[in-house]
Design a protein that fits this description.
The complex is a heterodimer of chains A (115) and B (241).
Chain A lengths: L3 E6 L5 H15 L4 H20 L4 E8 L3 E8 L9 H10 L2 E7 L2 E8 L1
Antiparallel strand pairs in A: 1-2, 2-3, 3-5, 4-5
Chain B lengths: L3 H14 L2 H21 L7 H18 L8 H20 L5 H23 L5 H8 L3 H9 L9 E4 L2 E4 H4 L13 H9 L3 H12 L4 H8 L3 H19 L1
Antiparallel strand pairs in B: 1-2
The chains are: A alpha+beta (115), B mainly alpha (241).
Chain lengths: 115, 241
């Protein structure tokens, strides 16, 4: 499986741009239309913000471009806690057809998005 | 911002009374949702203000239709609605502002700004500096820098006949005849051309073949076709002027 991973500190907001650019590049590899890519980028940024909001220090992002793109964002280190993410989750739900949340003790630990 | 219980009470009261003041109070309370969502969709060729207006209208509709007895949180209910309306707006009203065009337009501005900056400062600008100069976000700048720059039709390309202008080797898919109001006059003038010239006209302008392809068909070089084409155009221009 072809995968590409990216790991960065969530306090460094400048890397969110890098994340969006990587997302756009990976999507273009599998020939996804521009509007869907833009929506996917919004969801990926939103997922990273959820993990930041949940107290994680770093995020490990894995892209798997195979029959569409699966993007998994996993929170690492920091002081995980539950946070208010209903708006972000509603937005993700409105933009991607498939997404999955993995929680540990009520704290969102991983978000997986698929287009 | 009012707490959730107070908002829930107001929603119930609004459904009972239809009081516009209560509706407006609820809209003001949740206007941040429209702001946040509009911001999420900026950078796609539509101004934030337009997106915010569309999102606000969707929010008002959402407030008017929300049923607090359904058990959902209002933000959870209204977010997909606003998102859907914004996406419809993109689909219906912004077809002319497609991303590639925007990216290419920005790439062109970056080139100009970079040259200007270099003239003034003797060094090339950073992405952040370009972002400030062009009032564009850094992501768009990076994306535009990565995009393929538009190629000039006058730029040269290598062909089997040597180096030629790009314009001369790409097939002409445009039916230039449509530009002429007096088609009959043109037809008459074309009939006056010699046989080879008429073949060049047919192959180049009717069938849209490249000069190299025409050269192969007629058994002549691309340069011959290029010169013949210029000669034909001059003749026709003169005859029709």
């Amino acid at each position: 499986m072809k995968e590409i991973t990216l790991k960065f500190n969530l306090s460094d907001s400048e890397y969110f741009t890098a994340l969006r650019l990587v997302a756009g590049s990976v999507c273009s590899i599998v020939d996804i239309d521009i509007d869907t890519i833009e929506d996917f980028k919004v969801c990926i940024t939103e997922s990273a913000l959820i993990l930041k909001n949940c107290g994680f220090e770093e995020v490990l992002v894995t892209f798997s471009p195979e029959k569409g793109v699966v993007c998994s964002l996993e929170g690492l280190n920091g002081s995980p806690c539950s946070g208010e993410n209903s708006l972000s989750l509603a937005l993700i739900g409105a933009l991607v057809s498939e997404f999955e949340i993995k929680e540990n003790d009520g704290v969102i630990k991983r978000v997986t998005l698929k287009i | 911002m009012m707490d959730e219980n107070k908002a829930l009470e107001l929603f119930k009261l609004y459904r009972q009374t239809g009081d516009i003041k209560i509706r407006n109070e609820l809209v003001e309370n949740y206007i941040y949702v429209a702001e946040i969502l509009a911001k999420k969709f900026t950078g796609r060729g539509v101004e934030y203000d337009d997106l915010f207006q569309v999102a606000s209208e969707a929010l008002i509709n959402g407030v008017e239709k929300f049923d607090p007895d359904m058990g959902n949180k209002f933000t959870t209910y209204v977010t997909p609605t606003i998102t859907g309306i914004i996406k419809n707006y993109f689909r219906d009203y912004s077809r002319s502002v497609r991303l590639p065009r925007r990216v290419y337009a920005l790439a062109s501005k970056i080139k100009e700004a970079t040259n200007e900056y270099y003239k003034r400062n003797g060094v090339k600008p950073t992405v952040k500096q370009l972002s400030a100069i062009l009032n564009a976000n850094e992501e768009d700048i990076v994306e535009a820098l990565e995009s393929k720059a538009p190629v000039s039709l006058d730029s040269t390309v290598k062909t089997e006949d040597g180096e030629n202008a790009l314009l001369d080797v790409i097939p002409d898919r445009y039916d230039g005849f449509e530009k002429f109001e007096d088609f009959e006059s043109l037809k008459t003038e074309i009939e006056k051309l010699d046989e080879t010239e008429r073949k060049v006209v047919t192959l180049r302008f009717v069938q849209g073949k490249s000069q190299s392809e025409v050269g192969k068909i007629l058994g002549v070089s691309q340069m011959f076709v290029s010169r013949a084409e210029r000669r034909i155009v001059e003749k026709l221009k003169e005859a029709l002027s």
